[in-house]
Amino acid sequence: MVSDYELNKDSSKKLRGSKYTNLISSQSFDRLFNWIEETANDVYLILDESGKIIYATKSIECLLGYNQHEIKGVNWRNLLNEEEADMLGQKFNKHSDEKQSFKINVPHMNKRYIWCEGTIGRDIDHDNNTIYFLCTLKDISEKKEVEEMMIRSEKMSIAGQLAAGVAHEIRNPLTSIKGFLQLLQAGISKKEEYYKIMIDEIEKMEAITSEMLFISKPLTDHQEEESVNEMVEDVLILLGGQAKLKDIELIHSEAMDTFIYCDKSRIKQVILNIIKNAIEAMHHPGDILINHIRKDAYVEINIIDEGEGIPEEIIHKLDEPFFTTKESGTGLGLMISKEILKQHNATMHISQNETKGSTFQLRFYK
Questions:
Q1: pTM (2 decimals)?
Q2: Cβ-Cβ contacts under 8 Å for 145 (sequence gap 6 or more)
């Protein structure tokens, strides 16, 4: 039976020929390796070219429940569901030294799931020209839980602030439906025409309530190719009432539709946050323009308002937690939006317009 010492010693020898260790003495490397083994909370893995685990630190038992010896020889794909495995598989590059980072939901041995973030990079043992992959895993379950609690809090705050606009949007169709029902009750003709109008009004209310329910739904983490036109239109349905109350026109410049690979629910949350803020920032009637264009390297969404504009001295503070210029604001909206964009390899740039108002520019990189 191989002892822990022999296993660690054998694993450390495999890495000594790598470009990361050629300046460290064998004795120093052994001490460093043993120190990592005994004290690290994060998981460190060494994988061979086929993806089999050839070494894991003891911390894997604390994180995922697996014994470090039992997991030796297991292919990492067998530890994940198919969707997560396909996503992580794209990070394994035998021909690049670039380190890749990722976030992944890993099943624990007892079937619960652990949110982890990690890195993976290629290394070569030049003595025998063998490729290895070095991987780290860090438990971010608490961080993820706090993030989702903050987003839920912001969603509920938005729902409350939208209540007046939604009530306005629903009251008008209800008034129309009530009027037509009274006419039908009186025995008026042209029933089919009235039925059609009532159905249209009901469908309008359904669209509004569907979008209202959307912002209180649990978060997903499912990414697909999504239509930018469709996401913007969904948000405008929900914000139309709030805009009308302030005599603001929401103008969606629909050019050729563009698609981005994203979690639809999260990106709609970002667009909703920005347009809602723009409506609240406008104290006089005006327009909010939303357009989007596709470039070679990215898709760009611009939201341009005609408000007072954001002073240069506070633009850099807008993504700080709890910083807000609104009496009833939470100060979380833009911070959460930037975090969501970061997870989608996207950026947000805020600038003042030449005449009046501000522009929020979102770029989603391929």
A1: 0.50
A2: none
